[in-house]
């Protein structure tokens, strides 16, 4: 999706407007109004089943791949609704990349994992330079530079996840979505990913779903707290600066979750 001619709002890169998401007849997420600032890390937290990942996948139309899923309302990227009929979801996913819970490198070489997506997007520059630059951005170059043509599956879990981040940023997206990117990793690998997110946020908008409240508190600039309403639909309770959400929440439900009284 070419954004050159779209109205640009410097304050927000993604906005949801009365977003409702259904799986069949089940309302999974209701009435989400959320504004994501650019080049910051936004964490989405909340108990299991409250729709965190469903909302994240709505930001790059990954829910389109689920036959029973449908949405109402709008998701605006630079003011353009990504669900408009004239929008190509493949282009959306190039601008808004995704890193999943479990590291999922391709069964190819480290080099090809980075180069593959760039190549199918028609890149005609120096691929060696791009692979090196991308792996450096992902804080992985020094560890793999002598083994670029070995299988990515031989890497450790933490290295694989950093490679998946490299793969996502190689095509130069604006936004990187991360769905529980550290849940399968040990504490040392987790801290490396958090440090990497902080470095990448100078260039990219990062939105992370996490069950780990300490991670949200450590790594994010903004936090959205979701919970389930009485009808079991996910809903956003509160959104604000992470420092405010964790120290001075405005909503009792947020305070109860942060302090461990429920969830």
Topology:
Blueprint: E1 14-23, E2 26-36, E3 41-45, H1 52-58, E4 69-77, E5 80-81, H2 89-95, E6 96-99, H3 110-120, H4 127-137, H5 141-144, H6 157-169, E7 175-179, H7 187-200, E8 205-209, H8 213-219, E9 222-228, E10 234-241, H9 242-247, H10 252-258
Parallel strand pairs: 3-8, 3-9, 6-7, 7-8
Antiparallel strand pairs: 1-2, 1-4, 4-5, 9-10
Helix pairs in contact: 3-6, 6-7
What does this entry show, briefly?
The chain is an alpha/beta fold and about 260 residues long.
Q: Can you walk through the features of this model?
A:
The protein starts with 13 loop residues before the first strand and ends in a 5-residue tail after the last helix. The strands form 2 sheets. The protein has a 6-stranded mixed sheet, with helices on both faces. Strands 2-1-4-5 form a 4-stranded antiparallel sheet, covered by helices on one side. It has a domain of 176 residues: P-loop containing nucleotide triphosphate hydrolases (Rossmann fold). Strand 1 and strand 2 form a beta hairpin. It contains 10 helices and 10 strands. The N terminus is likely disordered. The protein is 33% helix and 25% strand. Helix 6 runs parallel beside helix 7. It is of the alpha/beta class.
